């Protein structure tokens, strides 16, 4: 639409019409007949229109959700949002002379310390984008440490999203990703693992609890690692480490995964938070940045970027990773949340989740239309198999505003009508009983 203002702008640019500004775009790439756009509206009208669109969305807090599979609906303390919303945190960016931003560096240092305390590892980086990329970076790191071999063993029970991202990374690096099957308990088949070990295997990844919710015997796999030459990557649920053995105490070389469970609500598109920790002797191959604590010449405590082996700072062929930044604000949220919980708090949280999971599991065992295909120990989720029609089951659930879990046939190629059902501390016995009633 031509207006006096448009004509003045065009004249200032030496153009007669808008088409003159688009002359650099080949005609074959232009939309034939132009683009049909509605007339402009006021800010309030736009706000109202967007509200009407948003009203079509399902509001998670209005539904009884048992979705899991890597992203969990935990309660995040109000203090987390209150502190992270402060402008000095929300708008902060680590400057290129990082040491002038001591507050930012100290926050990252505290995050690293908490990750090390939980995982039993000696060094953590400043965070990564999400759990999937953290695991892929861990595998690349393992290959750099091992210096030979092209095969990475992963359990067939690894989260399929993690495996897909790993496969994408591996394709361009000449890495072969080979599956290890699960046994009758739902855990990694250790005999199959040993049968696939060879001089060409540089890494083995183990997720615990795995995608089926089954807790792996990471210490036993650690003993297999001692008898063979490969690097051992463990992918834990951070909350479960309030009760379960820390990977660093079970022989892991690298610990990586998703930390959303301690700092953020589930949200389509994120944000998420990848963590990666390792042993001290592996630190030179760790991706991203590491903040360290030191003293200046006057003896005052200070924080510095101890390592930053990324492309932005050193030659590309020498970089450990092409990661450009880290999830500093989300890492701060994790730091606040874990600090509020403390050592006893995270143990109590893990115990509460475990008790609710076992409350549900024991009652599912009494259902005639349900079978539990895996007998292994679980922490916060487990698989059920039902002979009920899945479409009817989900229709009944939707009518009652219940999200009964993830359909594994869509995600893991599993046979039968299997659901992965997750539980957090937010689930009440009444909400769990409402889920159970669907299977009557």
TrEMBL record:
GO terms for molecular function: glycine dehydrogenase (decarboxylating) activity. It catalyses: N(6)-[(R)-lipoyl]-L-lysyl-[glycine-cleavage complex H protein] + glycine + H(+) = N(6)-[(R)-S(8)-aminomethyldihydrolipoyl]-L-lysyl-[glycine-cleavage complex H protein] + CO2. CDD domains: GDC-P (cd00613). Residues 5-439 form the Glycine cleavage system P-protein N-terminal domain. InterPro entries: GcvPA, GDC-P_N, GDC_P, PyrdxlP-dep_Trfase, PyrdxlP-dep_Trfase_major, PyrdxlP-dep_Trfase_small. Keywords: Oxidoreductase. Its EC number is 1.4.4.2. One of its GO terms (biological process) is nucleoside metabolic process. The glycine cleavage system catalyzes the degradation of glycine. The P protein binds the alpha-amino group of glycine through its pyridoxal phosphate cofactor; CO(2) is released and the remaining methylamine moiety is then transferred to the lipoamide cofactor of the H protein. This is glycine dehydrogenase (aminomethyl-transferring). It comes from Candidatus Raymondbacteria bacterium RIFOXYD12_FULL_49_13.
């Amino acid at each position: 639409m031509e207006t006096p203002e448009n004509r003045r702008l065009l004249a200032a640019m030496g153009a007669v019409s808008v088409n003159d500004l688009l002359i650099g775009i080949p005609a074959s790439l232009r939309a034939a007949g132009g683009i049909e756009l509605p007339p402009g509206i006021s800010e309030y009208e736009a706000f109202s229109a967007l509200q009407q669109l948003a009203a079509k969305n399902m509001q998670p807090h209005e539904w009884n959700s048992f979705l899991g599979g890597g992203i969990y609906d935990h309660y995040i303390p109000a203090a987390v949002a209150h502190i992270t919303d402060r402008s000095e945190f929300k708008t902060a960016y680590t400057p290129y002379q990082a040491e002038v931003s001591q507050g930012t560096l100290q926050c990252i240092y505290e995050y690293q310390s908490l990750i090390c305390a939980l995982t039993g590892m000696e060094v953590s980086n400043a965070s990564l984008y999400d759990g999937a990329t953290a695991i892929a970076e861990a595998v690349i790191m393992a290959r750099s440490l091992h210096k030979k071999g092209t095969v990475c063993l992963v359990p067939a029970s690894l989260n399929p999203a993690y495996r897909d991202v790993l496969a994408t990374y591996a394709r361009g690096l000449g890495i072969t990703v080979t599956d290890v099957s699960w046994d009758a308990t739902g855990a990694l088949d250790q005999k199959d693992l040993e049968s696939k070990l060879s001089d060409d295997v540089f890494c083995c990844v183990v997720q615990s609890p795995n995608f089926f919710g089954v807790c792996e015997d990471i210490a036993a796999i650690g003993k297999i690692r001692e008898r063979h030459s490969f690097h051992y990557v463990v992918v834990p649920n951070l909350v479960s480490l309030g009760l379960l053995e820390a990977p660093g105490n079970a022989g892991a070389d690298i610990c990586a995964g998703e930390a959303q469970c301690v700092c953020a609500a589930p949200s389509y598109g994120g944000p998420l938070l990848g963590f990666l920790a390792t042993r001290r002797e592996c630190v030179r191959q760790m991706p991203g940045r590491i903040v360290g604590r030191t003293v200046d010449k006057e003896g005052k405590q200070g924080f510095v970027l101890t390592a930053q082996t990324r492309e932005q700072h050193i030659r590309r062929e020498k970089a450990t990773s092409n990661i450009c930044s880290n999830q500093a604000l989300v890492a701060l949220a994790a730091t606040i949340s874990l600090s509020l919980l403390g050592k006893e708090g995270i143990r109590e949280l893990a115990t509460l989740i475990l008790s609710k999971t076992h409350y549900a599991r024991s009652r599912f065992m009494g259902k005639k239309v349900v079978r539990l295909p895996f007998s292994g120990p679980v922490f916060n989720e487990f698989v059920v198999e039902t002979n009920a029609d899945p479409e009817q089951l989900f229709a009944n659930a939707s009518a009652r505003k219940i999200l009964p879990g993830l359909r594994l046939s869509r995600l893991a190629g599993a046979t039968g009508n299997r659901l992965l059902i997750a539980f957090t501390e937010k689930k009440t016995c009444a909400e769990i009983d409402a889920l159970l009633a669907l299977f009557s």
